[in-house]
Amino acid sequence: MDSIVLDIPPQYSKLETIASPDQISRITKSLGISSDEITVQKRLGGITNTNYQIKIQDKFYALRLPGKGTDTFLSRKSEKKNTTTACKHLGLTPPALLICNSGIKIVKWFGDHTLTPKEVGHSVGLLTKLLKRLHHSGLHFENPIDTVSMIFKYASLAPQPHWYPDSQDSLEIALKISKAITKMDLITCPIHHDLIPDNILIDENKTLNLIDWEYSGMGHRELDLASLFTESHLGNEKQQQYLKAYNDDISHEAVAAYSVLLDILWSFWGILQHASGTDNNLNSLAYGKLRLKDGMDKWKQLTS
Prior knowledge:
Elements: H1 21-31, E1 38-43, E2 50-56, E3 59-65, H2 76-90, E4 96-99, E5 105-108, H3 117-121, H4 124-135, H5 147-157, H6 167-182, E6 188-191, E7 200-202, E8 208-210, E9 217-220, H7 221-231, H8 236-246, H9 252-276, H10 284-303
Antiparallel strand pairs: 1-2, 2-3, 3-5, 4-5, 6-9, 7-8
Helix pairs in contact: 4-8, 5-6, 5-9, 6-9, 7-9, 9-10
């Protein structure tokens, strides 16, 4: 586990330097403490939201402040319920000290060593075991996931002047894929739906935890696997290792289809991030353009 390092100058270590008065009020009233009892230790990773390590009365926690405008395309109420369910019944995420419907979240400090894409490629056994625990749990999550509906919602919110040349074509592709997926006999189960390496924590005992359940809901196992493969840029050989280790009746065709849909989804997300002014050190427009190119390339391979 990475060591704790104070890398925020003392003059910026107060909660007032990172949170709005309304956010501070929600936090202090919910916890029954004053803002003086909270110090900001360091900035953590994250591109949709802003995350920090904080210290409250000599104990360390992770604080998430919601990204600007995320309430227009995320259900924080569903995230709250799903996070609580995943922690209480499966122990797959650190215990929460505070979860607000506004998107503010404070969780027990689990460490800040997240997997790298390379480590994801070398963690086939650990990650398939974790995902199967979630997928086979029989639990019910809030938020039925329809990726194509999400794409069209994001597209409706993304200012058209910022669309890429292939954005309109990508919507037509999404509809074609949607029709194909509805004809597949896929199992619906609780899924995480945002398996970027930064959302996979690991400690010194090789215990894995998943964080940021804001996109979670009831969906297809193939969508979670596609998310894992796509976000870590896993090649075909590693993908086949995962599919073999998962050892269930997984539709390889659906995984490939969802991979295209995810690239299209995050291309519109990039436009939304840029339009809201919350790039968080990421060139969102360039990121979205790259994701769309990847998706269009994958579509060509699937249809060639």
